[in-house]
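Example 3.2
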Amino acid sequence: MQFRVGRQTISFDYTKNKNGGFSWGGAIGYQWLSWMAIEAGAFKLPTTDLSLELNSDNAPSINFNGSIKGTIYYLAGKMSHPIKDKMNLFAKAGLNYQDTSVSDDLSYGSDGIKSNDHIGPFFGVGASYSIKSNWYAKIEYDRASGQADHQSDEYAPNPNIMLAGLGYSFS
């Protein structure tokens, strides 16, 4: 992406992770009713490498390269409803804590993006299918709300997480 402001040209390029990436994580929960549970989990977000180049007609160009990494921890209430013999739909809502770290030139001095942490809402929906007595497969969409505070140059992503997984239910 490139745009011109006055006598300066600014180029911003995501050099990796243009279309998302793989995330991994896990969760543990306790179900006290057939339709209600509580769940705690974590996701390690993919690393995003990027570069920023500032060019001016009257000054040498400046390049910033670096990466943004993040981890999400969440605690959520989960409600489920059976729709067929072995299939359930579920929704969950709660809070997430994000720990975002910025490396290299992007965190340079007071002019860079700062590493930070953030607490915000967490939402998810999905479906599960019982494979055997205690094993199940699931597909799920989760959304963890981040923030961008441009006044203090702090950033936490707003990831949309699509996942497929296997689970085991202790009963």
